[in-house]
Design goal:
Elements (H helix, E strand, L loop, with lengths): L14 H14 L6 E3 L2 E3 L4 H9 L3 H4 L5 H10 L10 H14 L4 H15 L18 H13 L3 H5 L3 H15 L10 H12 L1
Antiparallel strand pairs: 1-2
Helix pairs in contact: 4-5, 7-9
Amino acid sequence: MTGEPLNRFAVIPGYREAVERENLIREVAFLDIPEFICGIEVLPLTPRHFLLLDAIGSVFVSGGVPSPEEVARFLWVVSPEFRTVKTWRDRRVRKRFVKRCRKVLWADACIEIDRYIDDAFQDSPGHKSGQSGAGDWAWVAVMVDNIASEYHWSERDILNTPVKSLFQYSRLQTKRHNPNAILFNSSDRLKSEYLRNLNA
């Protein structure tokens, strides 16, 4: 829950639901349960997934207009079946998966993929891609450095941990090192709009 009583802002349309959804996303991040995009099973998004998607130029992380092929590529990377294609058996698995993706409605998949990414990055300090502009290192390097320094996890473990969990750990670190730090939630936008209209 947020640090203030929810009922104080219960009059804001959609606010209670938004806060409950944020909390559900945070809690489910620590459960080993499958996620689905248009009925296709996917793993929780990890830094490793993000790096792979970025490396293949996925429009869902780098921007652009997605095609049905882009949808299939995205779903393949985050699928539990994903493997780098090295053998004829690997090619057969990928081909079977892509064939299944042809049954997915393109527009619905685009909406659900965007929601999947937004949910993963809801607690990130930047926008959904996790990038806050040009810099000297990737946001993933910052994440690995923060978590490894604080918790002494290996790089491999961090890269394979859902970003939903990692950003929560980062927020906890921020509060621990700076108790006065102000953290923002997606639902805060509804609260801000409500207060702005109240004062108008």
